[in-house]
Amino acid sequence: MLQLPVTYTQPLSEDFITDGDLLIELADIAWKSPENPEGLELDEWQRWLLRHLLERYPGNHPNPDLAGRLRYRQAVVSLGRQNGKSLLAAILGLYGLLVHQRSGAQVLSLASSSDQARIIYSRVLFVIQNNPFLSKRFKKATEQRGILTADGTGRYDVKAAKESALQGIPISLCLFDELHLAKAGMWGAAVLGTSQRRDGMVLGITTAGDQNSQTLIELYKSGKKAAAGDTELERFGFFLWEAPENAPVTDPDAIFAANPSVAAGRIPLEQVISDLKTLPEHEARRYRLNQFISGTAESWLAGDLFRKAAGSGVEDKVGAVFALDRTLSWTHATIAVANEKDGKQQTELVQTFVNPNQNQLFDRMIELNDKYSPRAIVVDDRMFPGLGHRMKQVGIPTWKLFASEVAAACSLTHALFSTDKVRHNNDPLLIVQNPNGVVKYLGDRWFIARKESYGEVDALMATIFATYVSERAQHAQIGVF
């Protein structure tokens, strides 16, 4: 099934001229990748999009400055994750190298980090290195130092999305990944970089963002105006696949609307629905339904999932994982424990402290270590600076969490609750604190934000940390970290 975008800029005519046909033919003949070494079969929606993105003005256009030119100088494509965005961008990257070869191509891949931008670049490099016809056209093609055309006039480089990276570069094609993370001014800087190039284009391919994604919010506004026929935005292309507002996250029609590869049958619908059931709703809506979310979402875990996980707690604390957390004001601290039994993580609260201090908590960690020989005792290094180091010095197997792993702990523990792999003992304090936990995004990561939460969350966070490390500990040898 060909799933068209729900919002997109219409072509100038039904029989519009496009470079997309030749590019599709080239991709059909030459494109290979590590995942598809025998060749590539583009989905119909991908062919449709390439044709529309590379529309040209007719040669007899009344404005001679536009006759025969690429229509779009800027274009934004937004759709759910895992639909093949990087593949499309890579095909367009090869197009940028070839179409501008006479005038000296300058193709850039931009993203929030060089490593992310290199995903597209590496796909282009693989195709060039594995095709004799293309490899002859490039005398230098390496993982780190760019792809250089045989005559030395054109190149493809990877840049982190910083304004300084764009200064003085006459860009012919800029492939901008992760627009939802783009810093203010970056898109404009890229557009200015193409202003002196005939058929220069800035193309962004992204998923939806949150209230902090100001660049993408402004581009959506322009895109929707362009799609509505604003003549001043005729050279702005906009192609948006997204689910209807308030649609259930597992509704097949909503999934198809945001994920043309699912609608095409390349990704099984049943697999997507199964995966969605393990994700927090805010994450499912953003990355699969391609819907904007607020920077701060509601409760981290649905109440029915928490209630379903009620059990009798930890049957055996010997060799278990203990975790410590505190309130921001140091009025309380809580220790939780978790251990695996029959494929489920059993967890319960061990002890709560009133107005604790680090020496008191350190002494208690020594007692727990002596009594239960835990696989690990977990602390958030930001909440207990120095405590983890003291524990390590006396031989306690210590797992110190930093910001990125706190986000991973929240995500994995949510997935365990969603797949019925957690059993807690219905401790009244945990029952009270569970709905307090509020989600906040930082880039692509989400975590439970203590300041934004509706009350204290020390018992909840200790439970999450213990559960997370206990699950991880099944697959890793725990030492002193």
- Number-wise, the strands total 20
Strand content: 15-25%
Identify the CATH architecture of the largest domain. Answer: 3-Layer(aba) Sandwich
Number of domains as seen in the coordinates: 2
Count every helix, treating DSSP H or I runs of 4 or more residues as helices: 17
Pick out the low-confidence regions. Answer: none
The geometry reads as elongated
Coarse structural class: alpha/beta
Please outline the helices and strands:
Elements: E1 7-8, E2 17-18, H1 20-30, H2 44-53, E3 55-56, E4 74-78, H3 85-99, E5 106-111, H4 114-129, H5 132-135, E6 138-141, E7 147-149, E8 155-160, E9 173-177, H6 186-194, E10 201-206, H7 214-227, E11 236-240, H8 252-258, H9 260-263, H10 269-276, H11 281-287, E12 296-299, H12 303-308, E13 321-326, E14 332-341, E15 344-354, H13 358-372, E16 376-380, H14 387-393, E17 398-401, H15 403-418, E18 422-424, H16 428-433, E19 438-442, E20 445-448, H17 458-473
